[in-house]
Amino acid sequence: MGIVSPGFTGRRRSERPDLPPGQYLVEDFPVLSAGPTPRVSLDEWEFVISTETGAEFRWTWSEFQNLPTETPTVDLHCVTRWSKLGTRWAGVSLDVLLDGVETAADYALAHSYGGYTTNLPLEDLQGGRAWVAYRFDGDDLPAEHGGPARLLVPHLYLWKSAKWVRGIRLSMADEPGFWETAGYHDYGDPWREQRYQGD
């Protein structure tokens, strides 16, 4: 007789090689947020990169739209265990936004409209691995999924892809963001199941 009561075994571990451990596949796009959905006017929207020395690089919505656009197709993995494969986006690579930004920083803290923050190593935003995305599946990114623009860092759990992103602050020291201060993992690699501190 087993020691685990029926109903407490959770979902079976995926045997699919394209899903990280502990994840299950969804066809819809679940909406999960820590607070109310900000409604940001495009006339007021801006994206700001600030360096550890206080230098700032700013783009209005119209300036942002004139930057080179990429159309990545990526898999998404949420810490709540769902994965959505082959999602199609359009946005600006962080490589483009960071081009010409002089910094000695090792870390970044993404800031969102509504107050949300999340921390990442700066190198995880470079090398064609991260975008500020403003279109999803051929349409403007809806507000419930982070529109008008969200950070997209698909190789990490989805909470690192900050919705309603408004800027990134570069720094020499790592500074935990919203979920990280609540016990989530500082890095969040889905293939290593880094869901919580200590994983």
Strand segment count: 11
Straight-line distance between termini: 30 Å
Say what the CATH topology of the domain at 24-28 and 42-169 is. Sulfite Oxidase, Chain A, domain 2
Alpha-beta content class: mainly beta
Indicate the proportion of strand residues.
25-35%
Q: Kindly report the oligomeric state of this protein.
A: single chain
- Alpha carbon gyration radius: 17 Å
Calculate the mean pLDDT score and round it.
91
Protein name: Sulfite oxidase-like oxidoreductase
Domain Oxidoreductase molybdopterin-binding: 35-179
Region (Disordered): 1-20
InterPro entries: OxRdtase_Mopterin-bd_dom, OxRdtase_Mopterin-bd_sf
Q: What's the SSE blueprint?
A:
Elements: E1 24-25, E2 46-50, E3 56-60, H1 61-65, E4 73-77, E5 82-93, H2 94-98, E6 107-112, E7 117-121, E8 131-136, E9 139-140, E10 150-152, E11 165-171, H3 178-181
Parallel strand pairs: 1-5, 2-11
Antiparallel strand pairs: 2-3, 4-5, 5-8, 6-7, 6-11, 8-9, 8-10
How would you characterize this protein structure?
This protein has a domain at 24-28 and 42-169: Sulfite Oxidase, Chain A, domain 2 (Alpha-Beta Complex). Strand 4 (73-77) and strand 5 (82-93) form a beta hairpin. It is globular, with a radius of gyration of 17 Å. It has helices at 61-65, 94-98, 178-181; strands at residues 24-25, 46-50, 56-60, 73-77, 82-93, 107-112, 117-121, 131-136, 139-140, 150-152, 165-171. It is built from three helices and eleven strands; from the N terminus they run E-E-E-H-E-E-H-E-E-E-E-E-E-H. Strands 1, 4, 5, 8, 9 and 10 form a six-stranded mixed β-sheet that branches. A five-stranded mixed β-sheet has the order 3-2-11-6-7. It is mainly beta and 199 residues long. Residues 35-179 form the Oxidoreductase molybdopterin-binding domain. Residues 1-20 are annotated as: Disordered. It holds the Pfam family Oxidored_molyb.
